[in-house]
Amino acid sequence: MRGIALIALVLFGTAPAFAAEEPSGCDKFKWPIDRERAALTAPDRAKLASGSEQAALPATAITLALVAPVDAFH
Fold first, then answer.
1. Which of 23, 72, 26 is nearest to 52 (CA)?
2. φ, ψ of residue 55 in degrees (nearest 5)
3. Is the CA virtual torsion 17, 22, 26, 29 positive or negative?
4. What letters, b where the CB count within 10 A reaches 16 and e where it falls short, cover 35-52?
5. In sequence order, what DSSP letters do the residues of 7-73 get, joined into one string?
6. Phi-psi bin for 8: left (phi > 0), alpha (psi -120 to 50), beta?
7. Is 5 or 58 the better-scoring residue by pLDDT?
8. Spatial contact of 31 and 45, defined as CB atoms under 8 Å apart
9. Angstrom distance (rounded) from CA 28 to CA 26
10. With contact defined as beta carbons under 8 Å apart, do 14 and 32 qualify?
11. Once rounded to an integer, what is the mean pLDDT over residues 42-70?
């Protein structure tokens, strides 16, 4: 009985090691991200300052310049 428990414990301990070996990185997505990558790297993206107001939600990706919390209200 202890042998079975020991084997089960060893098998459960090795499961995270198998999961950690999954491929990762920007080129390993299971769906195409070309459109999103192009939107985020487009040179003509609108540049907005932190705290600026927008009349409507932009239809394209934007670059938002953030400031440190201590400088946000000055």
1. 72
2. -75, -30
3. negative
4. eeeeeeeeeeeeeeeeee
5. HHHHHHHHHHHHHHTS--STT--SS--HHHHHHHH-TT-EEEETT---SS--SS-EEEE---GGGTT
6. alpha
7. 58
8. no
9. 6
10. no
11. 84
Structure tokens at 70: 């201590």
Q: Is 7 exposed, middle or buried (0-12, 13-18, 19+ CB in 10 A)?
A: exposed
Residue 62 has a CB neighbour count (10 Å cut-off) of 14
Rounded to whole angstroms, how far apart are CA atoms 40 and 26? 13
Q: What is the pLDDT of residues 30-39, one digit of tens each?
A: 788 888 888 8
